[in-house]
């Protein structure tokens, strides 16, 4: 009798476990399989997988063009008598949308200056990329436009920091995932990753929800925290002070981001060579970009975009105070210094935005509220700086066109 009861009890436990397995584990496995098999059909957001680049922007997904750039379509063959430049960069080429981004403002300035549409400024920036990845994008898509000039927009805030030579950033179910390109497994033209897609999806959505909730709470109160030069934070109405965007970060997250960027400039780490791998990778990518463009007789200019903590002393002081840092331990402009030394050695032209941004910041705010990108004033200033520095190149080009006819 006891044996029978034990036997029945074991069977019941086994049946319960089987039912639990069928009700929980099997559905989760099915969902995981569906997210792998149906990803190209279920997740048609802004991004899609690209075996060469890791990811690309889906063509025409959000008003962008055939290559996924934040711009209109241009004919691939340049029209005779026109000057064509590409601006290669990251998410800075998306701030302000298509019409208010600095690349469009720059093209408008050239049109107004010459009176006719003679200078084409093509925006070829991908968000979430660093210079090494932008080099691959330029080779695959950008050079199809046959430009006269390429401007590389280098953002000092993260272009060195993100520069892992083995990183391949892919988009899976609209989620950024960084994998080691040496270990990538591709089946039927699609990446297989060693993590649960469902769990990654849930994690990302939860983080987005948390961050949005923090930001919304501040916005609903009608006030937000503005960086102060004193230990006590100053609260002001955000509508009357600083332009904000839908991607506003919570103050806590924003300061953490800026602190991580400032940490790249720690003098001790630079002296010990702890940044050398990232730095050398990026500098080599710039040299390779220069070599490729020289072979095609395409002019090359590097535009150096500053981080807000370098421009806004109030923000810098707040980071120092918030995290109890010692400013004397940081070489705040180390990224510009490293980059310019290399560019001068390689005889590559560059435009450093830092001083003009610092001067203009004293008059008006140039960055979005608690968000690393330029606001409308910052985009306009960037366009002004590029116009002032690039206009001699376009003037020389058009003068060379009229010289033969003038000699006749």
UniProtKB/TrEMBL annotation:
Primary location: periplasm
One GO cellular component, as annotated: periplasmic space
Gene3D superfamilies in the cross-refs: SGNH hydrolase
GO function term, MF aspect, one: transferase activity
Swiss-Prot/TrEMBL keywords: Alginate biosynthesis, Hydrolase, Membrane, Periplasm, Signal, Transferase, Transmembrane, Transmembrane helix
Transmembrane segments: 16-38
Protein name: GDSL-like Lipase/Acylhydrolase family protein
Annotated organism of origin: Lyngbya aestuarii BL J
């Amino acid at each position: 009798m006891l044996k029978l009861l034990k036997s029945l009890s074991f069977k019941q436990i086994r049946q319960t476990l089987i039912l639990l397995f069928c009700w929980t584990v099997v559905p989760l496995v099915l969902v995981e399989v569906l997210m792998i098999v149906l990803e190209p059909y279920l997740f048609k957001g802004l991004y899609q997988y690209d075996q060469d680049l890791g990811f690309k922007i889906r063509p025409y997904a959000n008003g962008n063009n055939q290559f996924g750039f934040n711009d209109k379509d241009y004919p691939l063959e340049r029209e005779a008598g026109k000057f064509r430049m590409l601006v290669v960069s990251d998410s800075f080429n998306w701030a302000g949308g298509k019409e208010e981004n600095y690349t469009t403002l720059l093209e408008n300035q050239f049109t107004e200056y010459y009176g006719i549409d003679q200078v084409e400024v093509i925006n070829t920036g991908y968000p979430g990329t660093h210079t090494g990845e932008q080099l691959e994008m330029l080779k695959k898509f950008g050079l199809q436009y046959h430009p006269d000039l390429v401007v590389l927009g280098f953002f000092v805030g993260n272009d060195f920091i993100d520069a892992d030579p083995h990183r391949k950033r892919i988009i899976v179910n609209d989620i950024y995932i960084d994998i080691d390109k040496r270990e990538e497994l591709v089946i039927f033209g699609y990446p297989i990753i060693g993590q649960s897609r469902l769990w990654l999806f849930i994690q990302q959505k939860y983080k987005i929800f948390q961050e949005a909730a923090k930001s919304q709470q501040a916005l609903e109160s009608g006030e937000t925290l503005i960086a102060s030069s004193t230990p006590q934070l100053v609260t002001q109405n955000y509508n009357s002070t600083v332009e904000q965007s839908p991607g506003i970060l919570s103050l806590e997250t924003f300061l953490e981001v800026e602190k991580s960027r400032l940490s790249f400039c720690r003098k001790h780490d630079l002296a010990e060579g702890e940044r050398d791998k990232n730095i050398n990778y990026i500098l080599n990518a710039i040299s390779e970009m220069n070599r490729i463009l020289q072979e095609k007789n395409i002019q090359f200019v590097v535009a150096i975009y500053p981080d807000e903590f370098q421009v806004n002393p109030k923000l810098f002081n707040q980071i120092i105070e918030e995290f109890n840092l010692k400013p004397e331990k940081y070489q705040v402009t180390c990224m510009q210094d490293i980059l310019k030394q290399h560019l001068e050695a390689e005889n590559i032209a560059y435009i450093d935005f830092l001083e003009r941004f610092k001067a203009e910041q004293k008059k008006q705010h140039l960055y979005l509220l608690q968000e690393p990108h330029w606001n409308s004033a910052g985009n306009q200033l960037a366009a002004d700086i590029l116009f002032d520095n690039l206009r001699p190149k376009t003037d020389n080009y058009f003068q060379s066109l009229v010289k033969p006819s003038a000699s006749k």
